[in-house]
Amino acid sequence: MVNKLNIGRNIFISCLFFMLLAPLASAQEIIVKDSGIQKAYAGGYLITQQERIDESFNAGYSMYVAAYPLLQEYSGRAFQSGLFGTWMHPHHDGPLPVERLYTDIEGGLGWWTDTEYATTTPKFIMGGVQLNFAGWANGPGAGQGRDWDNPKGKYGVAQLSPWVVWPPDGLNLKQGTSGELFGSGYLPLPLTEPKSKTAGKDVPTGNQCWTLFINAGNFKGPVAFFTPYFWTKASAEDPRLKGLFLDQRPSSANKAFQMETQHVHSAIAKDSKGNRYARVTPMQYPAGPDGNTELLHRTMVYNKKALWNDVEAWFKGGKPADSKIKMEGAIMQKFKKHVSSNWGLVDKSITWEKRASMNITDYLDPDLTDAATLRVRWEGDLIKKRKTDNGFLVTLPEYYKYEKAANSDGGKWIAVAPEEVPAETGLHKVSFSRAFEGGNKTYVTPENQESSWKTPGPVAGPFKVRLKDRSTVTYYWYRFADQPALLNADMTKAEREEMQRRVEKLHKHWTKDRQYLPPPMIGKLADIDPGLIVTPPKGMEIGYVPIVTRQGIE
């Protein structure tokens, strides 16, 4: 059976190939004069396998991902990679009315080509994808592009937490994080009521508000959610699609957990004999004192007994729901002792699909994996280990030689020692250090007094906080129901007021010192940037949220 997930992902990757090759000539200058060196990039997936579970666990998931600097030094804006993550699609039982229907929640920890204030420490984005990438939402006020006249998803996420501000450039982790676990997941909350019409059309909108929950060392709880209209906007435009999106559909229980890397700066050159060699920006992984790397932990999936049922009863007049997820509505997806890779090298003469693979899994032993933890060990003569306060940083091989397969047009990049690469290639002189990339663009929101940002507008502010990525965010306090995302969510005033009533219950009872997601069974939790944690002004502790209106360098 062809995997629909991979079809959608591969189409997206094919588009990214052309998008990412363009910056090769300008975004990062390789510091070398030899014209025989070809700029290239490395990328692909690290893929793990898990036991299949019953599809009835279709109301969200959570996981703990090791957060660390993938590169020794951030090497320029064209660099793009996630850490381990997943793709949560709506579950469909039968045939679809259209040939292609790609929509999901992805995102996670990583680095992206449009990150303005990037650091070696990863950031977190939400990553909701509308129909076939017509738009996407990365957080409150964050999404595809910068054009507010054509927002393409930038109104797709509403702020829920009164204790955390969300920068449009991504949620910062504490600088220096190296191997600690960052907990996150999505569960639906019934913050709205189902509707029979959407944007005036006879198309229903469901009431599943998929909510991001975070479990970090210094913050726990729900942060923000995708508005149901973010998904059903496509249904209003094409009624054949009604009922197919995450506002109504259950989530797929069995998901892929992989590490997706799109672009790591590399260089390829030939020697006088025609042999091809490559050098890749040094990539690293954290390892504990025992030398083992724990990449992904406690991947859980849920049904509506976990949280939804109690919250729904609460909103209808019952007792307050406990914020702690009920384990009778949860099951852990167990890991198999397996990690594969399709990493390869690409330059202007090689398409993504025809890239030659790299043998990085030759240095990876997955036999230390257990049911709860994707645990590996990096070993081999070409693996470098640098001691840190928490254990080690393991650096993967940096140099490769291309070996053509016997009786085949294919081949493979085999890691080699630096001294095995002829000096005449010039690769030893290549530098991938961060080049000047121009001024960082400032994120701004509409200033028009008629816009949803100004009418009815905020009730307090402006406030400012400087983050450890060097940027300063400006934010205001809005009454929850009057925030811009909800004013653009196809909701009447009465519908927004009912949502306000429900959120005030959450703010009163679901405080930041409570437990939400099942905690990790190993390791230490990563912190978010302390600057992101805020205190509501007096009198605005319940029913108000901080909304970022600007992020830039001051």
Overview of the structural elements:
The protein is 10% helix and 32% strand. It has helices at 4-21, 228-237, 308-315, 484-487, 493-509, and strands at 38-50, 61-67, 80-86, 104-105, 108-111, 123-125, 128-129, 136-139, 142-143, 157-159, 171-172, 180-189, 209-215, 220-226, 257-270, 276-280, 284-287, 292-302, 330-332, 335-341, 344-347, 356-358, 364-365, 373-378, 384-388, 391-395, 399-404, 411-416, 443-444, 460-466, 472-479, 544-552. The strands form five sheets. Strands 2, 10, 12, 13, 14, 18, 19, 23 and 24 form a nine-stranded antiparallel sheet that branches. A seven-stranded mixed β-barrel has the order 1-15-16-27-28-22-21. Strand 23 and strand 24 form a beta hairpin.
Q: What are the SSEs and their pairings?
A:
Blueprint: H1 4-21, E1 38-50, E2 61-67, E3 80-86, E4 104-105, E5 108-111, E6 123-125, E7 128-129, E8 136-139, E9 142-143, E10 157-159, E11 171-172, E12 180-189, E13 209-215, E14 220-226, H2 228-237, E15 257-270, E16 276-280, E17 284-287, E18 292-302, H3 308-315, E19 330-332, E20 335-341, E21 344-347, E22 356-358, E23 364-365, E24 373-378, E25 384-388, E26 391-395, E27 399-404, E28 411-416, E29 443-444, E30 460-466, E31 472-479, H4 484-487, H5 493-509, E32 544-552
